[in-house]
Amino acid sequence: DGGITQSPKYLFRKEGQNVTLSCEQNLNHDAMYWYRQDPGQGLRLIYYSQIVNDFQKGDIAEGYSVSREKKESFPLTVTSAQKNPTAFYLCASSPRRGGETQYFGPGTRLLVL
Amino acid sequence: AQSVSQHNHHVILSEAASLELGCNYSYGGTVNLFWYVQYPGQHLQLLLKYFSGDPLVKGIKGFEAEFIKSKFSFNLRKPSVQWSDTAEYFCAVNAGYGGATNKLIFGTGTLLAVQP
User: In this model, does residue B56 exceed pLDDT 60?
Assistant: First the structure.
């Protein structure tokens, strides 16, 4: 069953902690993306990766970090430097570098305690 | 900078009413255009897309959208909505198609509630 999986579904973080959100895809897609969704603001791009071992900052990368060591995996770390981390985080992938449809995972909701 | 505007933040319709959701983008070059839908508790999924050719594109569940290049618009339409169309709808643009990037720029979304 092909698709994108994100875990966990809900994540609680204490102030000052780093947390890592998982994103795995078995669609053999080259490109992967992380978005943040906030009410009334749509989706905003955090980081994206077009190929293994390479990634670029999106529009709101401050306070986040990523790695792309494997084609299938693109974990996102929300660091303590992110001042407003409570949000819904969506991972996506697409088959090529330019112009192709992006496919989304189910999302992870992060709550700061 | 490129941007996408969705004019309606909340829309409430009765079943069988017609729907039109506005989407305008700001980019003068070649674009790919998308409408995504997020049903309650479900993944964000593709509703329809325009890459080239016929500017009137048809998607799933009876939705269609028309690309009007002169107006920088890509409005979503459905002639008769159903209660199951209740969802949040996002317009997105991939500017600079053919380049080295596949960045999507999303609008802020329109929350559609269909009353039975």
Answer: yes
**What is the rounded CA–CA span in Å between residue A93 and residue A100?**
10
In angstroms, the Cα distances linking B58 to A89, A99, B80 are: 29, 19, 15
* pLDDT tens digits, one per residue of B10-44: 999 999 999 999 999 987 777 889 999 999 988 89
Residues of B in contact with A33 (CB under 8 A): 104
User: Residue with structure tokens 């209740």?
Assistant: B86
pLDDT in tens, B63-74: 999 999 999 999
How does DSSP classify residue A107? -
Contacts of B34 in chain A (CB under 8 A): 101
Let me know if A73 is exposed, middle or buried by CB neighbors in 10 A (0-12, 13-18, 19+): middle
Q: Is the dihedral of CA B41, B78, A45, A66 positive or negative?
A: positive
Q: Which residue of A has its CA nearest to B43?
A: A106
User: Nearest CA to B76 among B34, B21, B30?
Assistant: B21
How would DSSP label each residue in A28-49?
A: --SEEEEEEEETTTEEEEEEEE
